[in-house]
Design brief:
With 270 residues, this protein is mostly beta strands. It has one domain: Sandwich (Jelly Rolls). The chain is 9% helix and 31% strand. It has 3 helices and 17 strands. Strands 2, 3, 4, 6, 8, 9, 12, 13, 14 and 16 form a 10-stranded antiparallel beta sheet that branches. Strands 10-11-7-15-5-1-17 form a 7-stranded mixed beta sheet, with no helix packed on it. Bound molecules: calcium ion. The site of calcium ion has 10 residues, from strand 16.
């Protein structure tokens, strides 16, 4: 054999060439068509963490016409116990974040997610997230996370009868006292300006953000001037999954704010 190869060096050259090229001949895996200049820049669709912005910039979510729609996975969750996954069907965007850390029933701030938002239209906004009970089928377990909006004018829970509650230890101004006010502190845990935000529907994605145990109050925030504000979310109950959240003024109905086909708000990288 060796002697024949030495005798016919041209055949040896062709044989070696064919072997060297064989790794590129897989028609299934070769999807680039041999593009010699593939674009190395990640797109938002493949890099949701930090809103598709690179690490040197911050994602800013832009309110428009009194509505903000933010995918939870567009917050920077790197290195935290929030896990991005699509295991539960029917999430939007690139999936959802699920709290995979320990329960933190009385300790807000674990796995801190911050979302910088830009408000052009000041006013009173309602806050609601779309979440899922990711462990079990009990509507009162694995069903809550912490929420704080630290730089707003007011941040509070309000019930249909007008009762208002504030987070414990808040440094924000209270709303002028309303008639018939019963309680100003929510039932259950609240601390350092954080509300425990819960929902109560198992085995389905559900739009609900309530605070005060067994006495559900809806969540509101007042931005009194145009500008940038911060939404903070942190882990509380292991297995609580958040797909996205909305903020909307009274010019938008809850049905319109939470429609499946709403596009997420524009993101600027700054
Ligand atoms: Ca999502």
């Amino acid at each position: 054999m060796i002697a024949k190869i030495l005798k016919y060096p041209i055949y040896f050259f062709l044989f070696s060439f064919l072997i060297a090229c064989s790794g590129d001949d897989d028609p299934v895996n070769d999807e680039t068509g041999g593009d010699p200049n593939p674009d190395p820049t990640p797109t938002p669709d493949t890099n949701p963490n930090n809103g598709g912005c690179d690490n040197a910039t911050t994602a800013v979510f832009i309110e428009k016409d009194g509505l903000l729609t933010v995918e939870s996975e567009n917050g920077n969750f790197s290195g935290s116990s929030w896990k991005l996954t699509q295991d539960i069907a029917d999430s939007s965007g690139e999936g959802y974040l699920i709290w995979d850390g320990d329960d933190a029933f009385n300790k807000p701030g674990n796995g801190l997610l911050t979302y910088k938002i830009r408000i052009a239209n000041p006013g009173t906004y309602r806050f609601i997230w779309r979440s899922y009970i990711g462990i079990g089928t009990n509507g009162t377990e694995h069903n809550d996370s912490w929420l704080r909006i630290p730089d707003a004018k007011h941040f509070y829970g309000k019930k249909g009868n007008g009762n208002i509650v504030y987070p414990n230890d808040t440094t924000l101004d209270p709303i002028a006292e309303s008639a018939g006010q019963q309680n100003t502190s929510p039932n259950g845990s609240s601390k350092e300006g954080w509300f425990k935000i819960y929902m109560n529907k198992a085995s389905t994605w559900h739009w609900q953000s309530s605070t005060s145990d067994n006495d559900a109050h809806d969540i509101f925030v007042v931005f009194d001037t145009p500008g940038d504000y911060t939404i903070e979310i942190s882990g509380r109950s292991k297995g609580h999954a958040i797909d996205k959240f909305v903020l909307f003024t009274e010019t938008t109905t809850q049905n319109d704010a939470t429609k499946d086909d709403n596009v997420k708000s524009e993101i600027k990288c700054e």
